[in-house]
What we know:
Layout: H1 4-15, H2 20-30, H3 37-49, E1 52-54, H4 62-73, E2 86-89, H5 94-101, E3 108-113, H6 123-135, E4 140-144, H7 147-151, H8 155-169, E5 173-177, H9 186-197, E6 205-207, H10 219-236, E7 241-243, H11 251-264, H12 280-295
Parallel strand pairs: 1-2, 2-3, 3-4, 4-5, 5-6, 6-7
Amino acid sequence: MPSGANAFRRLFSEIGTVxxxxxxxxxxxxxxRSIKTGSKIAGLKLATTMVDLTTLEGKDTPGxxxxxxxxxxxxxxxPDIPQVAAVCVYPSMVKHARAALGTKAPVRIASVxxxxxxxxxxxKTRLAEVKAAxxxxxxxxxxxxxxxxxxxxxxxxxxxxxAAVVEACGEATLKVILETSELETYDNxxxxxxxxxxxxxxNDFIKTSTGKTSANAxxxxxxxxxDAIRDHYLDTGVAIAMKPAGxxxxxxxxxxxxxxxxxxxxxxxxxxxxxxxxxxxxLNDLLRQLxxxxxxxxxxxxxxxxxxxxx
Length: 311
């Protein structure tokens, strides 16, 4: 068996490493792109359709989840403002979300699972949690990898665990959370992306973060993962989706992330089947900007309902 260091060397020689300076220079330019009024409105609406509206708190209640679902279906009283992509809740709250949304609502139900956010539980426990969430009505599962397994170079074990979750999901979409802040380097983020993509299905997701650590989604780690998705697609023809999560709070940030998607992967990824924002607090700023673009006046923040969480 190769040591952990040897396992990393072999993988890096196969998939290549990341030019960290080049990544930072590239993402710095995204924010300088000029977006005209019509394109800005379209981008704000598109970003709204990509939000996973989330509450992941120990004090979550069925009533709070019901309110979350109501906001997901009707983010604002302006009928021109679209619905969000999904609501995201803990497994115990999936049944309440399903009751609130019904069976035919366009808003999907996502649930974090596999001992979120640590991933530190026996695999049998993690798989049971996935199966329970799906049985209660989850359309999507956001799993966390066991980062210790990856950092130890136990790549086969990491992939076997992801593959087991894929099977437990059945028809539910899977999002694999890498927790990029704990992977330490861009090279490791690229490596973990490839390992996950090789065992998930087309239009399953790789995802930056749980939103529960001190560092979450950045343009840099988002770019590393977009590049990995592009390279994997060119090699295999399998299109993998992407979800940055945590720390994206302003409409301006969201538009910059969408510029990165367009310039790296093209228009085929500019939809909520292939790109999401795990950032509930983002939604209200998107709404404020859309109202301002329509009326010419900023509405006070208190006129918008509080975001459900900080995810």
